[in-house]
Amino acid sequence: MSSLLFHLYILLAILVLYNLYTLIAIFLLPVSSDFPTQTLGATPYEYLMFTQQWPKAVNKNSRLTKFTIHGLWPSNFSGKKLICTGTNFSKSKMPPELEEELNISWPDVERGRNWGFWEHEYNKHGTCSEDIFDQTKYFELANKMRKTLDIAQMLKKRKIVPVVAAIKKENQNKSPSIRCKERKGSAELLLVEVVVCYDHDGKEVIDCPDNRTCGSPNQSILYV
Ligand SMILES: *[C@@H]1O[C@H](CO)[C@@H](O)[C@H](O)[C@H]1NC(C)=O
Ligand SMILES: *[C@@H]1O[C@H](CO)[C@@H](O)[C@H](O)[C@H]1NC(C)=O
Ligand SMILES: *[C@@H]1O[C@H](CO)[C@@H](O)[C@H](O)[C@H]1NC(C)=O
Ligand SMILES: *[C@@H]1O[C@H](CO)[C@@H](O)[C@H](O)[C@H]1NC(C)=O
Ligand SMILES: *[C@@H]1O[C@H](CO)[C@@H](O)[C@H](O)[C@H]1NC(C)=O
Fold first, then answer.
1. How many CB atoms lie within 10 A of CB 37?
2. pLDDT tens-digit map of 69-123
3. For residue 216, how far is its CA from the centre of ligand 5 (angstroms)?
4. Which of 190, 193, 184, 186 is nearest to 212 (CA)?
5. Is the CB of 46 under 6 A from ligand 1?
6. For atom 9 of ligand 2, which residue has the closest CA?
7. pLDDT tens profile 16-58
8. Is ligand 5 within 6 A of the CB of residue 159?
9. Is 70 a catalytic residue?
10. What's the 130 CA to ligand 2 centre distance in angstroms?
11. What is the dihedral of CA 116, 196, 206, 146, to 10 degrees?
12. Which of 101, 125, 200, 204 is catalytic?
């Protein structure tokens, strides 16, 4: 065998092996590397509660005039409390662009300590859904839900009263859950929080199992 032919065979063999490797990498590696994360730190849950708050009802000195996120909570229909395990919050995993958006959509209205608020919410609730949404995806999802659910806009569009009916009409007729408090020295109710519920994967709005409302059905609820 001439030495040139020999070199050609070697080259051919390398090419064949390389292509085989690429094929294996494309078709097999993603499966085997995705698989273990499916069971990591999972706490089974059934649906997601997405809670927004009216800043001035939480802190009367707040100047914010948009509903902001309180939390995104993996929950069970039974109402049983979930104890989340999983990987705790890490500041270094937060992309700066997302941080900038969360500064607006998910601020700590009470104390102005956004990092502490995010860490608390993630460790207590977010780690339950770690196998579905990693830390970044979890915060991205909440931020995206906030963009979709502009409560103030929904109330304005439906002329505010009654609050629950207005939010329902803007959400495929799915029941939210709302929380209020009494305004000092009057019978008026102040809207504090609005909860909209999503299915397990955060894709579809569903009826909140706890479809609590405030006051009598037609009582006006203020957010001022
Ligand atoms: C929550 O629901 C999941 C799925 O139905 C179940 O496996 C889990 O045990 C429930 N957790 C609690 C605390 O009830
Ligand atoms: C995660 O953080 C919580 C408090 O936010 C703490 O109680 C818990 O021990 C931490 N878990 C781990 C594994 O560090
Ligand atoms: C987010 O807000 C904090 C102060 O509330 C600020 O220090 C930080 O730079 C902001 N982050 C971004 C990315 O804008
Ligand atoms: C609230 O939930 C209960 C029980 O799931 C249901 O029977 C009722 O119709 C709901 N109310 C509204 C206003 O959707
Ligand atoms: C509430 O308002 C609706 C429509 O405005 C009316 O049909 C209904 O009778 C009222 N219900 C009560 C309890 O006042």
1. 13
2. 999 999 999 999 999 998 999 999 999 999 999 999 999 999 999 999 999 999 9
3. 10
4. 193
5. yes
6. 88
7. 555 544 444 444 444 333 333 444 557 999 999 999 999 999 9
8. no
9. yes
10. 14
11. -70
12. 125
Backbone angles phi, psi at 98, to 5 degrees: -70, -40
Rounded distance, CA 222 to CA 3, Å? 89
Q: pTM of the full predicted structure?
A: 0.79
Per-residue pLDDT tens for 173-186? Answer: 999 999 998 887 77
Q: What is the CA radius of gyration of the chain?
A: 25
* Residue 180, amino acid: C
The residue whose CA is least distant from atom 1 of ligand 3 is 103
Give backbone dihedrals phi and psi of 125, rounded to 5 degrees, phi first.
Answer: -120, -45
Any idea where the domains of the chain sit in the sequence? 2-30, 39-222
Whole-Å CA distances, 113 to 60, 71, 212: 17, 15, 30
CATH number of 39-222: 3.90.730.10
Both tokens assigned to 106 = 């998910």
